[in-house]
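Protein Entry — a single chain follows
Next Lines — sequence and tokenised fold
***
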Amino acid sequence: MATFLYKLGRFAFRRRHFVALIWVALLTLAGVGAASAPAAGSSSFSIPGTEAQKAFDLLEQRFPGMSADGATARVVFKAPSGEKMTDADNKATVEKTVKELSDGSEVVSAADPFKANAVSKDGTVAYASVKYKVSGMELEDASKDALEAAAQDARDAGLTVEIGGDALTAVPETGATEVIGIAIAAVVLVITFGSLIAAGLPLLTALIGVGIGVSTITALANALDLGSTTSTLAMMIGLAVGIDYALFIVSRYRAELAEGREREDAAGRAVGTAGSAVVFAGLTVVIALVGLSVVNIPMLTKMGIAAAGTVAIAVLIALTMIPALLGYAGRKVQPAGKKSKLLGGGRAAKKAASGAVAKPNMGTRWASFVVRRPVAILLLGVVGLGAAALPATSLELGLPDDGSQPTSTTQRRAYDLLSEGFGPGFNGPLMVVVDAESSDSPKAAVTKVTDEIKGLKDVVTVTPATYNKAGDTATITVIPDSKPSSVTTEDLVHGIRDAGTEIKADTDAKVLVTGSTAMNIDFSQKLNDALLPYLALVVGLAFLLLIVVFRSILVPLKAALGFLLSVMAALGAVVAVFQWGWLSGLLGVEETGPIMSMMPIFMVGVVFGLAMDYEVFLVTRMREAHVHGETPSQAIVTGFKHGARVVTAAAVIMIAVFSGFIGSSESMIKMIGFGLAIAVFFDAFVVRMAIVPAVLALLGKKAWWLPKWLDRALPNVDVEGEGLRALDGSKDTDPDEDRELVRA
């Protein structure tokens, strides 16, 4: 592989006009596709194989006019203090508002609270349900404006009015912190390279890669039913890995220049060595992201594949666009250790001319310290991460609803008013679907279901059944006594399903529970069930890949165990901030509550891929030194001498990019941004920089042990670039090389 990538790097350096033109053309094509593509609506949410999804699919078949995917709004009214909603003036105001709401072109229905029995027992709160033909993301601005205007007219008449539901759904905003994250990355690159030109190359290529990836996702969003979160996630991961991959290749290029190589040869060797590590690091990220498809939740699968595509683009750009841009930069990119005159290069040159002996760099000093005290460093790192992971033992999972919104939003205030007037369970009604098609007496079966549900604990109200035209299917709405995210409500859902099993045996009628609350419960359960198989698949495949890369058993095993430490510590930090409320004000977390159900499995996938990046980049340097004859301890120090500065810069950049998304208005993006940032911090600075060298120092030569039979069976991918040593005397490539690479 190293030899092929070496030739690819030289080809891109020599034919830079051709390479640059291809990437610019791809960026233009993706941009045009995104600009001309129809606007994407909200992505559909389905959980194949769950009871809630089966009930939802059955409703679409048996109740075709329900507009199940249409947006809904609950306009909640509260009477002034000392008054009731049934007072003549207040009633007239509500009826006028309902009439205004029903006039919209996209409105299916607007229910009068006084006819729909939607007034609280104490008479102070009422609500009007509004149903629309299209989803919240597809709803026209005119319909949203009309909804808000009608509510404002009722407020002007003296009522308190708030709007819940998904009709006012807005595209999430990431805020200015995303730009700040990129700015921090730029500063780190300048400090690392001591050159504005060298620092600009990783940023430029990362932006091009993300531009192509996100534009492609936007162009295909409508056709493939991709939500806005998909492109945000692809941008987040694409920026982070795009900058990091380019950083490693540019850094290796400058190191090759410092050894006296010609620029074209240095570009080829940088791609042949650091580029090999980039390929395998990128593969681990892609495996982790594509592996999300085993969960069998379409939304999660699409997010993973889209992000994996962006990572693949980042790898290809790093291998081709970076050497091409290095060709354009020429002598403006200095060898390692030299800075531009603008950043103090003149002083460095004078110091070198004076004959002063260079001090060991920080990476060398740190590695030497760890090698001398491996047991203490190992214990300190493991205990520290273990302490950070403790909050994860109280992890509570759920999906966000209006109750998790900030109190400043109308959706949250509507949620609170409904809880006040009708009880906490009113915000999470359960829909029970009775499929009595096979029953001898459908109505008797439905009556039996209703009576059974009324006898269960935690049930406040059971509405009369609504039948379809054929009379063989009915829906029953159940109002629990507890809030949607509570364990009591979850127990009620399981209780109804258990009762349904007995009813089916007696009447042949199927009882299915659905609705948003039941969907959330099934979603969380499915993710929990999939976590261990997913972890086994992803870690297993990456373990095999790392065995090939490092030609060792213990090094990949140590890498996987270190990842488990960092991901558990990161989950603990997420619980402490988003569930317990620690530092919530500082991070803009207005409401604490359960951690999103998909967070653990998503963090496992993404963090594993990113953690293996640093493992590959850092340990590959150690492996390279060991292969070239150094002792295990010397190889650790050499690996840190050449790689620690760059890995540190890469980690800081990735943390800055992820932290930039903490300013998002969407709780899921905010939580993912924080979780990934803190996970990279733990993994890069505690696991890879401390625990890894400590373990390798304790293992000694055993770290690189591999059974002889396995050594013979494994392919030699030559990540260390051993095959390039044969090219030391050659300055030219084969005359047919360019044509071969173009065909490849």
Q: What stands out?
A: The chain has 23 helices and eleven strands. Residues 516-550 form the longest helix (35 residues). Confidence is low (pLDDT under 50) at residues 729-733, 735-739.
